[in-house]
Every structure is written in C-alpha cells, then in structure tokens.
Amino acid sequence: MPAKIVMIGGGSGLPVIVKPLVKKDVDLTAIVTVADDGGSSGLLRNYVNIIPPGDIRNILVAMSSADQSLLDLFQYRFKTNDDFLAKHAVGNLLIAALTEMTGDVSEAIAKLADYLKINGQVYPVAKEPLILKAQTTKGEELTGEAAITAAHQALDHVWVVPNDDVVDQDHAIEANPEAVDAILSADMIVYGPGSLFTSILPNVVVPGIKEALQATPAKQVYISNIMTQKGETDAYSDAEHLAVLDRHLEKNVVDAVLTNQTEVPEDFVDYQRWGEISTQVKQDEEGIEKLGAKVYSRDFLLLRDAGAFHDGEKVAKELLALLGDD
C-alpha cells in the first residue's frame, strides 16, 4: 500500500513539491489555507461567499494528468483591461460555480479533480472562508492575509477568525473533517515550502487541525524556505522558522527539517521583481536539534527567472528517502 503523505501550506511553494511527488508511488494529500483574501480569490470570497479558490486551483493543476491545453485554460487569467472579469482565473470561476451548484465545496473539488484526472486529494483546511489576523512584535494588530503581507512588519503570532458575514458571534470555526482524517492516518506530514505566517500557519492554527497534528503518529517534516520574507521573517534562520511553527502548534512535533545548503549568488536574485523576499535563510543546525528535529542539509536550490526556488525533484527524492528510513 502506498505511503500516505499530507502536505500543508498554500501559495506558490507547495505545487513545486507536489508536482514531482504525484508521479511517485505515494498517496498524496494537500491541505490548503482558506484565508487568502487577495486578487481573484479575495474578490470571489467576498462576492460569492466561498472559500478562496486560488490555492486549490494551483494544487489541482499540479496533481493533474489532463491534457496541457485544458490546464492552460484552467489557469488562464483574464487581462486587467477586461473590466468585468479582470484578474479572475478561469479555474477560480469554475470552483465558485461548482460550489454554488453542489452546495458543498468538497463535492465541487471532487468533481473538478475527476475532470482534471488528478492523482491525489485536495482538501481546504476548513469549509468556510476565514480571516487571518496577526500581531506584530510591536503589538499592532493586522487583519487580512493581503494586508499582513503588504505591511512588511515583523510578526509575533497569527490566528484565524470567522468571515465578516458570520452573524453568530459565538460561531466556532471547525476544521474540515477530511483534512483531520488525512492528518491522523498519514505516514508523513510535510509543512511548506511557503510563507511561514501567511501560507503554513493559517492551516496550523485552525481548531481541530492543531490537535490532529499534535496527535498523529506520522513523521513530520518542515521544508525550510530558501529566502526570508521581507519584514515578516527578516534575518530568520531555519531554526527560528521552526521555533515559530512549534510555538503555534504548542508542541515540538517536527522530526526532520530539510534545509538548503547551497549559497544563492549575490547578483542573481532580482529583488525588485520578487518584492516579498529579503535575504537567504541562515542555517542553524544546533538550534534545530535543540527543538528535537534532525537536520537534512542538502543542495535543494533551483535558480531560475532571477529568483531562488526549491528544486522539486530533489526535495521529493529526499522526502521519499525519509519515508524509507522508517
């Protein structure tokens, strides 16, 4: 029986690892945040009151074996001068339509997964849109993922609250049961890669998810980012990233940290083009080990498009090697 790997995150980092992993003999599940409130996802969550579809769309495409022309259509984003449809991706509109047609986001995703011939499962961390909140290290409170990212401020912690249109003030946020079951039955949990405070932690802090991550017998792996994020994680080492994750989980659950050992050439990265990144993440093996995790320092670097990214194939190979160590 294939090993069950659950990946937790959002944004553009997760698909990089998902794409090569779906080609391996594993049972792959992606759990994605529902707190995105920027761009097409933000507009749709406000107008149609659905979970933001962007991260789900990107993971579906990464897992798909459908014809590339269909995937290109699914990912097509209308031009900004197309006033009514400006910024919307076709796939986001399809997720919104199917959610409205079926009345259930899980059923909508399952239908699209069938159309796109995906190899794996995609679960939103909750079945309702959530609002991400953050407190800066100076005590200021920020509201909304887009605003948090744009603020470029050092953050202390994040949490989620119900969407503004929830009338019942006592409304309790509930984790998607499918996501909880996947975590509890997994052989391996993988966090990231992705923005620590706005892609990974918005999943971790959802009530029910945190408890499942504390209880699962799965091996847990954190993929450290290659570059820090401006303001939020400036000068963070890989150990400091892990410490923040542990603090939000309220338990040291991570068994292994994959960290890039290859230096990013100083003159390669276009910092103006990649405006959210700051500097290369520093390695701190001793700090990681003090948090109870083992360090796997490798060459995971892929230089492209004037930026520094993870080499998905190399990361996937390392994850499978870690599974073999059990």
TrEMBL record:
For this protein's source organism, the top of the classification is: Bacteria, Bacillati, Bacillota, Bacilli, Lactobacillales
Q: Which family does it belong to?
A: Belongs to the gluconeogenesis factor family.
What PANTHER family has UniProt attached to this entry?
A: GLUCONEOGENESIS FACTOR-RELATED, UNCHARACTERIZED PROTEIN YVCK-RELATED
Instruction: Outline what the protein does.
Output: Required for morphogenesis under gluconeogenic growth conditions.
- Cell location: Cytoplasm
List keywords of the entry alphabetically: Cytoplasm
InterPro entries per the record?
A: CofD, CofD-like_dom_sf, Gluconeogen_factor
* HAMAP family registered for this protein in UniProt: Gluconeogen_factor (MF_00973)
Gene3D superfamilies named in the record: CofD-like domains
Its protein name is Putative gluconeogenesis factor
